[in-house]
Amino acid sequence: MSDFDFDAWANLARRSPQAYFRARERYINSVIDSFPEEEQASLREFQGEIDMIRANAGSPMRATREMMEMMSDRLEAMTSRFVALKQAAREMEHLNAHLVDLYAHTPDLKPIDVRRKTEDE
User: Fold this and answer.
1) Which end of the chain is more exposed for a tag (fewer CB within 10 A), N or C?
2) How far apart (Å, rounded) are the C-alpha atoms in residues 67 and 61?
3) Which candidate, 47, 42, 50, places its Cα nearest to that of 67?
4) pLDDT tens across 15-39, in order?
5) CA–CA separation, 20 vs 18, rounded Å?
């Protein structure tokens, strides 16, 4: 994004809104295409949500507020998932420490393989 020229984009939007929106769409698609293929569908869906908000908002300021609210909601959801993952990691560390202690004090105890076997095994 270091090569983004705001003035050039603003001038294009003033001179020819249709050309601006075509160039904008090409640029957004090129950015999305630069991501791994498995991420592109969700990025296109996200861009569709942004475009829908912009189209229905009625004003740039309202669109900005709605997009900020959407981003805040997503950040809150990510934070909740991160907290849950952190708690699960702590529980696994506690369990691991307990197992290490158990094996250290019970020499005849042998670990078992609890992984699921595949059909190839």
Assistant:
1) N
2) 10
3) 50
4) 999 999 999 999 999 999 999 999 9
5) 5
pTM for the model:
0.64
Which two three-digit tokens encode residue 83? 């907290």
Nearest to 54 by CA among 81, 29, 96, 21: 21
The Cα–Cα gap between 111 and 103 comes to 8
Alpha helices in the chain (DSSP H): 6-15, 17-33, 37-57, 60-105
Separation CA 9–CA 2 (nearest Å):
14
Q: Is the alpha carbon torsion for 93, 97, 102, 108 positive or negative?
A: positive
